[in-house]
Design brief:
Layout lengths: L4 H33 L2 E2 L15 E12 L6 E6 L4 E2 L2 E7 L2 E11 L6 E11 L5 E2 L5 E5 L4 E8 L7 H19 L5 E7 L3 E7 L2 H9 L9 H14 L6 E8 L12 H10 L2 E7 L7 H7 L4 E5 L4 H14 L2 E8 L3 E13 L1
Parallel strand pairs: 10-11, 10-13, 13-14, 14-15
Antiparallel strand pairs: 1-2, 2-3, 2-17, 4-6, 5-6, 6-16, 7-8, 7-17, 9-16, 11-12
Helix pairs in contact: 2-3, 2-7
Length: 349
């Protein structure tokens, strides 16, 4: 049988394409197997690249004790929790014959990224020591928490002409928070130099942006007083925020505050469940990085080599701050003392 040159070329082309598809398929299968070996669940072959679990849900397990006895209120004590998970507090709301256990401010993140929760499974250990799922008990999650954010912004003269860029990136941060939360968040701002200027919590972006844009520079750095002011704003607010965060930017050391020991601030933020994020701009002045790292209670410290780095840092902080869940486990209000296992399937964002 003879083939024309054009038909032979077509056959060879189709054969080559088939081979490439076969090779690609083999590689993809290897990648998926590699992904499964790394402990990923609910994998998506299209999300697996070179053996990395991009987009694959990973399993995290939290353990605790549910306890309720006659004459007492029900409660839940966490006994074991992965380092990727943090919880502000666990509250119990008793409405007989039910009790709602609310894990407030649940956040999932590691050094690489934050996590998006796909599924939560709650099991309790029965009398035979076996983990048992009860279909009549329910679990729900909601990441549209009532979020409050205080931005403490250094406006000292040491920033020089960089201050205009600082205000631009700070305004972008504000815009991100409002966009991600669909305007459900409230933001306050405290600018600090020789004095502090305070904008109370606002739910309208343009008011916050206007306040930041009109800040002027001063000589000194009252950073500790500004952070204390942020703590006070949460304490005095009429809003019962589910999640509280303070973000502090500076390019220098604290040198004019009435508060002289930063441990006073870290203790308060720990006790009140406030997450603190700090940014130190290197180069313009001498920053105390160890102190800024210590002030990043339940949050993170990020150094900026240049003012342009603030854009990425502020964006990262806005994602971390808004990736917060309230998880509610509803069960019967029986008197009991049971071990509980909470399995969370979540994927990196």
């Amino acid at each position: 049988m003879k083939f024309s040159k054009s038909r032979l070329t077509s056959i060879l082309s189709l054969t080559l394409i088939a081979c490439l598809i076969a090779l690609t398929g083999c590689e993809r299968n290897k990648d998926v197997q590699g992904c499964m070996q790394y402990g990923c669940n609910n994998y998506d072959a299209n999300a697996v690249i070179e053996g990395e679990c991009f987009g694959c849900a990973q399993k995290f397990t939290l353990y605790g004790i549910y306890h309720h006895s006659p004459g007492s209120v029900p409660g839940f004590t966490i006994s074991e929790m992965p380092e990727e998970i943090s919880v502000t507090e666990v509250n119990a709301n008793l409405v007989v014959p039910y009790v709602d256990l609310t894990f407030e401010g649940l956040k999932m993140a590691d050094q690489e990224s934050s996590y998006l929760i796909d599924e939560i499974i709650v099991e309790e250990k029965n009398e035979n020591g076996e983990w048992q799922f009860d279909s009549e008990f329910t679990v729900s999650q909601n990441n549209h928490t009532d979020l409050g954010v205080v931005l403490c912004l250094d406006s000292s003269e040491s920033l020089g002409s960089d201050f205009e860029n600082v205000k631009t990136y700070a305004n972008q941060f504000v815009e991100d928070i409002f966009n991600i939360t669909s305007n459900a968040a409230q933001i306050a701002v405290i600018s600090f130099s020789t004095d502090t200027s305070v904008l109370q919590f606002q739910s309208q972006q343009y008011i916050v942006n206007n306040f930041i844009s009109t800040r002027e520079q001063g000589q000194f750095t009252r950073m500790y007083d500004a952070i204390q002011g942020g703590i006070n704003l949460f304490e005095w607010s009429n809003n019962a925020f589910d999640s509280q965060a303070i973000v502090t930017f500076t390019d220098g050391k604290n040198n004019l505050s009435a508060i002289t020991n930063y441990n006073v601030l870290t203790e308060q933020m720990n006790n009140k469940g406030i997450r603190s994020y700090t940014v130190g701009l290197r180069g313009n002045d001498d920053i105390s990085e160890s102190i800024l790292d210590s002030l990043a209670v339940n949050g993170e410290y990020q150094p900026a080599e240049s003012v342009e780095d603030l854009s990425e840092i502020f964006t990262g902080f806005s994602r971390q701050i808004t990736d917060v869940y309230n998880v509610v486990y509803t069960r019967t209000s029986e008197y009991t003392n049971k071990e509980v296992r909470i399995t969370i399937l979540a994927r990196p964002k």
